[in-house]
């Protein structure tokens, strides 16, 4: 079952220019990671420092492998641009209620 992961980010006030550019560079590796079906970035219309990365993965295992890679050898350094830690929420796609 496919997974949608929402990564909620808030850029620090002094990184409103370079932070989003860094994120776009970082996402090239995300999109190339095995199991990634795509990534979209949306920006809060009221607060340009607030963005959400919407990631689609072929499986929870692929998403887990990506998170482990980012926590280790694939560390992006994105944290230096953020006002606080990102918040990750993951959803199973296609679940009927």
UniProtKB/TrEMBL annotation:
Domain (ABM) ranges: 9-73
Lineage: superkingdom: Bacteria
InterPro entries tied to this protein: ABM_dom, Dimeric_a/b-barrel
Gene Ontology MF: a single term: monooxygenase activity
Pfam name, any one: ABM
Alphabetically ordered keywords of this record: Monooxygenase, Oxidoreductase
Protein name (Swiss-Prot/TrEMBL): Quinol monooxygenase YgiN
The organism of origin for this protein: Leifsonia shinshuensis
